[in-house]
């Protein structure tokens, strides 16, 4: 029974820790500029950010120009940026609590679909019990497990977005390859028809000259 109670405590604490995670993941279409806000309640927290440019709004467009992402703190000061990238993943330590802004800028003339993910974690529940020498090791292990699970989920989401982008690029490249083959075939047929026509004209002229 004691073992079951300890497992129940561990499970309960882990669930609480997961609920304390602040996360937001969206997929949106950008024209020129889009900004998003995310509140960070504690200084010293680590903010994990990732984005992937999934596709453009035209099947004929393929570019590695990427987009710009600028992160600003509650005072409007820039704390991190990512320039001309189709995908990026980074983390930053919060120096000022409050609402942080994440602004994307699209330099392409086409609309772009972007997958954006931001996570913030805080272990306030563990801090409150850190003084208990019996529970401190348990909370430390739970914190490590929670962090590992969180990193796996964050990485998985980023990889899924990368996979979606690659699938769309492969489909677009295949479509362009088919169109290229059709165009080359049509050009070859047209050239053959013109060649046959010219040969017939040349043959008719020679035949007319020989009769004269």
TrEMBL record:
Membrane topology of the entry: Single-pass type I membrane protein
Subcellular location, record wording: Membrane
Signal sequence, renumbered to the chain: 1-25
Keywords: Membrane, Signal, Transmembrane, Transmembrane helix
Domain GOLD, first and last residues per copy: 33-120
Nucleotide-binding among keywords: no
InterPro entries, A to Z: Emp24-like, GOLD_dom
GO cellular component: membrane
UniProt record similarity statement: Belongs to the EMP24/GP25L family.
Protein name: GOLD domain-containing protein
UniProt source species: Arundo donax (Giant reed)
Taxonomic placement: Eukaryota, Viridiplantae, Streptophyta, Embryophyta, Tracheophyta
